Every structure is written in structure tokens, then in C-alpha cells.
Amino acid sequence: MSDTYAERAALYEQFVEGYGTVRVLPVDAGLDGPVIHGWVNADRAAFWGMKDLTESQVAAIYAQIETLGTHHARLLVKDGEPAALLQTYEPTADRVGACYPVEPGDIGVHLLLAPAGPDGGRPGWTSALLSAAASYVLLGLDRDRVVVDPDVRNEKAIARFRRQGFTPGPVVVLPEVDLPDVHLPEKRAQLAFLTRETVFPGGAPAALARQESRTAPGA
Prior knowledge:
Blueprint: H1 3-6, E1 12-16, E2 20-26, H2 29-40, H3 55-65, E3 71-78, E4 81-89, E5 106-113, H4 125-140, E6 145-148, H5 155-163, E7 167-174, E8 177-178, E9 183-184, E10 187-195, H6 196-199, H7 206-214
Parallel strand pairs: 5-6
Antiparallel strand pairs: 1-2, 2-3, 3-4, 4-5, 6-10, 7-10, 8-9
Helix pairs in contact: 2-3, 4-7
């Protein structure tokens, strides 16, 4: 594992058989800003809405997120290498909360996968990473249901969530958000939901339950 990430305390850690170890780290805007900037500036991340931002602007956004109690940014590290950016939020504190009936135990999620390496994509890689992310959110954060809101034009993300067990919800229009530091244009989104019972129909396996008990409070 790279020393850059091994020395940082993880909020959650899980070994996935046949895949590797996934660690969930709080995003450090100063340390992780360059990596995140490289991801969000790529054409493949156009729907993330940060393609034209500079590295300092991206770092400033994530420094601001670190100050919030309702929104959190996490870096998923697989075997010492950054694999995805995971953002979680309270739906009642986000524009999506005005577009569907929020239930107790809901948590919103945005997920940006790292680009494939020089050898290209590997079968089962994304599914295994998403499974670890779902375990962290549903078990580590003790939530009942995950909601995602990909842009309706982002067919790859929508198909990926469906393969992972998400149930499609309504197509909604997320209202524009225009704040001094952030501007989010109106977005037509496909809501989708993943329940804890869907992922763990018989309850969490013992190994994952132990992971849950070790997750830091307030993670």
C-alpha cells in the first residue's frame, strides 16, 4: 500500500474476496485536490460539473465541504491506490430533498470512479468497489436506504446502479442552486434507491458487522 494513504486513518475498511482491500478516507482538500481535479476535469466526468475548474477551485470546494455537517467527501482507496470519490449528504439538506418524499434513514450519494488504468477495465472491478461503498454507507453509517440522482443523459451511470440492485424511481428536475461559491444548474435526474434489505437480505455477514462496529463515530 502506498505510504501516502497507509498513514492516514480510515473511517472504514473492508476486504473484498477476489478484489482487495478498500479503505474509506476523509477527503483532505490539500492532499487529495490534485487527484480529484484530474478526475473531474476529464471528459468522462462531464456530468460531475467541474470540468472547467482549476485545481485551486476544486480544492476550495472540497475544503468547504469539510466544514459542513450534512455533506461529506470520502476517498475510496483500493490496495493503496485511489479508486473513487464518494460524496454523501443528508437529502433534507440538499436540493434532491424537494423532489421526493424523504424517509428516515435515507442518505444521498454521489460517486465518481477513477479512470481505468493502462490495462483498461477489468470485469467485476466496479461491482466489487460499489459493494464496498454500499457496505460503508448502509452498515458503517447505519442507514436504511441510499438515493442517487444521476443526470438522465448519463446512461452508463444509470445502468451501473441498476446492475448493483438499485430500484429506479421517478425522473425529477433538481432546481438550480446559485450560491456565492457554488452554482449548480437545473438538472433532470433519474432517482434510484438501494435499501439495506436488498443488499443484506439475511442481515449483514459477521465480518461486515465487525467492520461496522469499528467504524468511527460520525464517519
